[in-house]
């Protein structure tokens, strides 16, 4: 196949654009997608008769059916236009959403016309292969050995996390099952409970090979938790940061592991997992003889975009293995920021040295000279991803691909045998053949993954995106850098913004300092207000005015999202920021929660400083208008209260 990796790519040419700037091209290609499919149909056995004649097509009820089709589509269109969220616009700065890649939308529609089902290759001879290739692309981006790794598409990060925990759970019980099996147990050097429950992932996977050689694997597999169920609490604790996505709670519930077996790792002042406390918790679990089912690190937390110190977690595992003979599974939840790993890879998929990287960013115009990204420890975290056992990543977030596209990558594909539902030897062949992209094979994705029937169109969308936008510094690197640049400028502008004077009141806008990724949390503060509760109230009401909750998504001039940083999730870390804003510690102790406006800045449109400056001016006016609206409402309210009082 052609290597596109070195061709020049223009970011604006990737998207339909906020004004549908690429309308002509997009329409032409959309028509191409549909026309090609219609040719495909009509060219299939031209000797077959037409089943509907022209005369029949003029029959009244036939016409009527078509008119009603049109009518319903009119209705749907008007509903969509009225209440959908304008993600394509830089005026939308909220969840991890932006314009989606034209190529993915087109590839999706093109493939969707053929209605492939990636559950089995039998029903998706083309798109199953594309899914395996797209999965391999992601594995390569993370630095996994393409000959050993395996990745596939899921409906989203949630299901990818379920699958990560599923393999972690099953692998934990394999040594226990081996110990129970009369012939298999010779394979174990040490069958103490401690040894069985604290094995290295790679050692367990080697045991699978041994079991297969002896023809015992399938028997033993049925003696794992998959056959015998989960013994309450025996598999130990899942360690996840306090800042976790709630899919981890659901995962523990669904997999029968119990939410009570979650140990939450506290976060530090930068909202990352506090590595010192993590070490202490891990050591104390080891001391108590409690096994660790898995540790999850988050690369791009959903609320603050924090990137956990993956390198330190990997190092901690090494230390535990060396000092205590204890190991554990490591899963990375990189649903949000995973695609940013592309920013570190050169045209030959090599991880670029830090200094070279920063130089290239600036010399090749990927970042302007005033933006330095990433922080050195964030760099180290991305570099360490290749050591993790599995990684969740969402193409439908920072991959700019339409829903529903999540993905999971696993470092060593032998692990799939623990969850797969075909005879173990088949998968070996299947992965082999999938890699060779041999269209003749019968790959059964549905029997090796969480889901069953699934859209082949999604695979086409992800695959096509990766072909046009390479997973390296010049491809996704450029697109993601646009959002990061804008996020940096936005924080700058907010923190240097003059106060808003509305009637006799004054409001400041404040951004939380230097996030690891492009999540900007910001808030308004009334000058002179010392009540944190009132502060939260103010921002909550602003959110309502700047969100779909205002009931006017399309006519609204700005849309954002919001979240509460609570002590439950973040300990006392938000207190520092509250202090900086002038709230006393007593206020924090009383309220235990800081309400913030939350903007994932993914737009590609504002990477030019002039565009940004003009946009910021407009945004300032918008904010002023929203504050005015809020005060008008307040005045009206006090006025009517006074009336009632009279
Ligand atoms: C978005 C997100 C998820 C869930 O992914 P979905 O695609 O919404 O299912 C999980 N973890 C993190 C960190 C996320 O940001």
From TrEMBL:
Entry annotated with the keyword Lyase: yes
A GO molecular-function annotation: carboxy-lyase activity
Key word Lyase present: yes
InterPro entries the UniProt entry points to: GrpII_AminoAcid_Decarb, PyrdxlP-dep_de-COase, PyrdxlP-dep_Trfase, PyrdxlP-dep_Trfase_major, Pyridoxal-P_BS, TyrDC_C
Superkingdom in the source lineage: Bacteria
Family annotation (Pfam families): Pyridoxal_deC, tyr_de_CO2_C
Modified residues (N6-(pyridoxal phosphate)lysine): 397
GO terms of biological process kind: carboxylic acid metabolic process
Domain L-tyrosine decarboxylase C-terminal: 498-627
This protein's UniProt keywords: Lyase, Pyridoxal phosphate
Swiss-Prot/TrEMBL cofactor(s): pyridoxal 5'-phosphate
Family annotation (PANTHER family): PTHR42735, PYRIDOXAL PHOSPHATE-DEPENDENT DECARBOXYLASE FAMILY PROTEIN
Protein name: Tyrosine decarboxylase
Organism: Providencia stuartii
Lineage of origin: Bacteria, Pseudomonadati, Pseudomonadota, Gammaproteobacteria, Enterobacterales
